[in-house]
């Protein structure tokens, strides 16, 4: 495999994480070491911007700004939920693919890195396959990124550690607040976190629990069918014991019939997924109504995937490492792979990177193993804790200005367009 | 005024803050300097625990633990919402008062400090008046504490700075997340924060705004009557300009008829206040329904008053200072006052403590002045920013263990009961 000379394009996709930019920093810093990589571009708003030939010249950014990406949340170059969807609209998808390769060709893109979750890995896989078909020499490597932690074959996903560090911290703090106010009347607080089908984020809140009486007392994961009677009995028992009960619920919680508690079927996103809202509100109605226990809700929403002010240093470092590994793999001549994290030792925790064929990744979801959850289904067990604990170690401490984090603002100087506008 | 020898009792009341325990640390550390103060007790769960003669011996706590209270959120000794309510139930109130003074007498309590908001300052005031009436020598000083920042006569309230530091940080991070995902479709995120009648917390989120296009774009404060038409026009304009719009709303937002957007009139708390929920959800329905703009909500709830992991150092220091000032005032022979913060200079920011007669405080609410809010009512202006900015300066950095804050756990050794149980 000879040296491939050309330009690099990196883009971000899907829901951001607190460390999504750390992966880009890893890509850029590693790319700088390889002479065969000439220009370094980022696509604006993922694949969507690339189709519109909206490219950013990363060599115009200050080195300090690139380094600052390691603690800056939100997608620095924008993401999209746009998907080249052959199943839904093969005609448009074929047209998009043509356009994409026109952009690649016009800008001599020979290295393409796409940071994202399941859907984005599928996009990378299709681009790789298309390049092979077209005999267009390009190296396509997927970079894992999702707070949902549901990508298969990787030990865990960059973004997940920071999300659960924030959620566990928040649940610990809410526990101190609610527990301190608890009198004989009893009270309940239900914290809703993200997770459409996998309960990884909800489960992560268990790390807040240092003693049996500590919050969280109940974690409802979408993997376990919701049983109203058992849930209410558990809340009642917990309130009787502690005078308060902190419940964490993954937004996608389902009953035995597979119906989501919080689904509002009238709203769907651009991928056709039902927009979920209100699992916590539904549960609060139940507890308040059936147990007559004062109940409040917290819905962390977007905050949980952007909380870089208390991100996991382990997570941020691994995210950067995945970006570096992607470039190294491409330089080595690999294409059509996703970088994965491989845990080589649990105690002490050691991780290295590996590669997995994108065919094994796309659209496969990874769930919490049943034997990582207590028998009654209300808390993850020691196996989960052993898995998750190292992922939140260490603090990213972004610089502050005027008492608030000083996140990086990029120049984003645009690469001159060559093509005529996308029709 | 001669030296008053006896024991000290400190208690916490109402909704906690991230720095509520810093005030107790201030009380305890200052009390340790004065020989006339013998035992140092805390009441468990505020006035409610005192009525039940549940006292904690603070001299049994390690000095390190007392110092650790300065970064530990939640009420370390518990709070309550119980009120000695002469208006509602004069008979019970009179009985409670008798019991309270029995407890004071039985334990030689000569110094009483109560950290709380409006309701709690009222309680302190009644206890002071009762002591005068009974000719029982005790010095009662209120310590200000509320994230709501609605106590009058004090420049601001301990707890507020940390609440808005957290809310502004969160809104900044959400802005980076949502802004980074914004494509031509446009999107909106509505963040609901606390504040039943005053919009101080909502207003504080404006500190996240460093440039005109930054989040938050709209802040809805309960002080300004909600105008649906103007609001929707503003969201539409903002989305057209930025492709996204971040709205912050105080939970108690009202329309021109004074009706709360989020009130569920079927639920009231033990003070008879309507339980508010869903201002953000109501607004999201509006934006989604009338503008057809994708809208998500975040409800920070209890998290915003407990987020010690990123508390304001200025706030924590001032909270401790208020506790110290309370003891100094009592030693000086004062009773029936609340400690207040007095801003002696704006640039550089300088604050000292003063005293205000509790008669001037109880049940008076302090609102954002109208001329601190923009003409259209959608954002606080420079006057507010000048006021609020210094309050979030500096970071409390609690120690961490295993990637999570290591908050203090107290011994809480109970003082032996002397009285027969409360009937």
Topology:
The structure is a homodimer.
Chain A: E1 6-12, H1 20-31, E2 37-43, H2 46-51, E3 55-57, H3 63-68, H4 90-106, E4 109-116, H5 118-134, E5 139-144, H6 160-181, E6 187-193, H7 200-204, E7 218-220, H8 228-242, E8 244-250, E9 263-268, E10 274-276, H9 279-291, E11 294-299, H10 313-331, E12 337-346, E13 349-357, H11 382-388, E14 400-401, E15 404-405
Parallel strand pairs in A: 1-2, 1-4, 4-5, 5-12, 6-8, 6-11, 7-8
Antiparallel strand pairs in A: 2-3, 9-10, 12-13, 14-15
What does this structure look like?
Two copies of one chain form a homodimer. The model of chain A has no long low-confidence stretch (mean pLDDT 94). In chain A, helix 1 packs across helix 10. In chain A, 60% of the residues are buried. Chain A is of the alpha/beta class. The radius of gyration of chain A is 22 Å and the shape is elongated. Chain A has two domains: 208 residues, Rossmann fold, CATH 3.40.50; 146 residues, 3-Layer(aba) Sandwich (Rossmann fold), CATH 3.40.50.460. Helix content of chain A is 33%, strand content 20%. A seven-stranded mixed beta sheet of chain A has the order 3-2-1-4-5-12-13, sandwiched between helices. A four-stranded parallel beta sheet of chain A has the order 7-8-6-11, with helices on both faces. Chain A has eleven helices and 15 strands.
């Amino acid at each position: 495999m000879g040296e491939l000379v050309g330009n690099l394009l990196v883009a971000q996709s899907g829901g951001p994480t607190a460390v999504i930019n750390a992966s880009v920093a890893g890509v850029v810093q590693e790319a700088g070491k390889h002479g065969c990589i000439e220009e370094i571009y980022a696509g604006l708003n993922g694949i969507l911007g690339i189709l519109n030939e909206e490219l950013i010249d990363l060599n115009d950014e200050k080195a300090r700004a690139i380094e600052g990406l390691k603690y800056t949340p939100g997608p620095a170059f924008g993401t999209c939920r746009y998907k080249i969807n052959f199943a839904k609209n093969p005609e448009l998808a074929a047209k998009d693919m043509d356009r994409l390769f026109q952009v690649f060709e016009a800008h001599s893109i020979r290295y393409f890195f796409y940071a994202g979750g399941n859907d984005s890995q599928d996009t990378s896989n299709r681009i790789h396959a298309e390049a092979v078909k077209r005999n267009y020499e390009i190296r396509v490597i997927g970079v894992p990124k999702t707070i949902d932690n549901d990508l298969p074959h990787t030990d865990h996903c960059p973004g997940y550690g920071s999300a659960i560090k924030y959620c566990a911290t928040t649940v610990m703090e809410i526990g101190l607040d609610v527990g301190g106010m608890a009198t004989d009347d009893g009270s309940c607080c239900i914290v809703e976190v993200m997770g459409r089908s996998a309960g990884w984020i909800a489960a992560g809140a268990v790390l807040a629990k240092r003693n049996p009486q500590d919050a969280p007392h109940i974690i409802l994961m979408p993997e376990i069918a919701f049983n109203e009677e058992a849930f209410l009995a558990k809340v009642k028992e917990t309130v009787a014991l502690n005078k308060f009960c902190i419940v964490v619920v993954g937004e996608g919680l389902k009953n035995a019939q597979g119906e989501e508690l919080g689904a509002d079927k009238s709203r769907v996103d651009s991928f056709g997924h039902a927009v979920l809202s209100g699992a916590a509100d539904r549960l609060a109605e139940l507890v308040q109504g059936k147990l007559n226990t004062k109940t409040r809700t917290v819905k962390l929403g977007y905050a949980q995937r952007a909380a870089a002010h208390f991100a996991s240093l382990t997570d941020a470092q691994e995210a950067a490492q995945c970006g570096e590994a992607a470039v190294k793999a491409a330089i080595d001549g690999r294409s059509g792979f996703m970088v994965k994290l491989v845990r080589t030792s649990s105690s002490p925790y050691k991780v290295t990177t590996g590669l997995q064929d994108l065919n094994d990744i796309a659209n496969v979801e990874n769930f919490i193993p049943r034997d990582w959850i207590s028998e009654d289904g209300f808390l993850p067990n020691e196996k989960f804790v052993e898995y998750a604990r190292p992922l939140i170690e260490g603090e990213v401490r972004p610089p502050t200005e005027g008492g608030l984090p000083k996140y990086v603002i990029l120049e984003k100087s645009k690469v001159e367009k060559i093509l005529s506008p996308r029709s």
